[in-house]
Amino acid sequence: MKPIMLEVISPAMVTFELHWERWKSTFSKDTLSRRFREQQLEEYPEEFRKGCFLLSEWLRDLKKIYRHRLQIRILDAQSPLGIFKQLKYGIKYFPAFIVEGKHQYIGWDRVELEAIIDRCLLE
User: Fold this and answer.
1) Strands (E), 1-123
2) How does pLDDT run across 19-74, given as a tens digit for each residue?
3) DSSP letter assigned to residue 95
4) What's 36's domain CATH number?
5) What is the domain extent for residue 77?
6) Which of 33, 53, 61, 104 could form a disulfide with 27 if both were Cys (CB 3.0 to 4.6 A apart)?
7) Greatest C-alpha distance within the chain
8) Total-model pTM
């Protein structure tokens, strides 16, 4: 069974947070890296940071639920590909999710997104 492709378009901080998780074990003892990361995070408004951490947690949960049946691709909204996808799908708000290049969902309703993913798995 081929995995479902879930593309997530979000501002850069989410991509930073998710990539940091991958490298955290490498740099965890490096105080300089930790201070740099904390400094970077403090530059964003509290509400924005909460949204980014929520999305990051949400994507980890989705990966746990769907395991090998879901492939997640995170796109920075300001990257050329992110801008192209926004224009192609008419995306104006974030987070935006594109499932299998056919279905899109914008917002924070986890149940709705999971319903779209489940429908795609049944196709």
Assistant:
1) 4-10, 70-76, 96-99, 103-106
2) 445 444 444 555 555 666 667 667 778 887 788 888 888 899 999 999 999 999 99
3) S
4) 3.40.30.10
5) 4-122
6) 33
7) 49
8) 0.77
